[in-house]
Amino acid sequence: MKLSFSLLSKLLILQYLSVLCLSADDFDFFYFVQQWPGSYCDTKQSCCYPKTGKPTADFGIHGLWPNYNDGSWPSNCDPDSVFDKSQISDLLSSMEKNWPSLSCPSSNGIRFWSHEWQKHGTCAESEIDQREYFETALKLKEKVNLLKNLKDAGIEPDDEFYSLDSIKEAIKQGSGFTPGIECNKDSGHNSQLYQVYMCVDTSGSNFIECPIFPKSKCGSQIQFPKF
Fold this sequence. Notes:
The chain is of the alpha+beta class. The protein has helices spanning 5-25, 37-41, 92-98, 110-119, 130-143, 146-152, 164-175; strands spanning 29-35, 60-67, 161-163, 180-185, 191-200, 207-208, 221-223. It is built from 7 helices and 7 strands. Strands 1, 2, 4, 5 and 6 form a 5-stranded antiparallel β-sheet that branches. The longest helix is centred in the first third of the chain and has 21 residues, at 5-25. The model is unreliable at 13-24 (pLDDT under 50).
């Protein structure tokens, strides 16, 4: 039996759309990313404190990002799934403390969290819904205390320089897993400890060894700036 051209076209389109849906949902792991506010603010771009005031001198959540083992990642998977503040109303105080926005102009964090949900969270909806997405990130931060891991190894946010290897080792000793480190540069072109990447299974429950690390431009000695 011969298929008509229009029917064949429709079948091919449906097959293509099914592949797109699979690629959006079937990710391999999460990057759980935390950033050091001192490094975020110590650039030409500078920063603006949230409307709630200056955050505490601690690593803050940047996001929970679905990724593939080949280094690529899905993004903006469901434009119809908009951020709904009411779903996390009881998490807001914890969000303001642990997931602050430092971008300008000063904000209450809603724009930042909405962006993270739209770009990354919608690609994790096959595993966790919107509320679970934010709650999961908050719980992951509780599980690994980066600042304590570093301080226990004598690495302090004091504007001094530390070896990249010693920073990685301190976090591995404290968390049990090897981190990925991302650096930025201050106005004096010093390489600074900026973001720490930890890998998590697709349920968002367990840290795992990273299948792949993001590209890093850190020097062998990097600064841990004050905040």
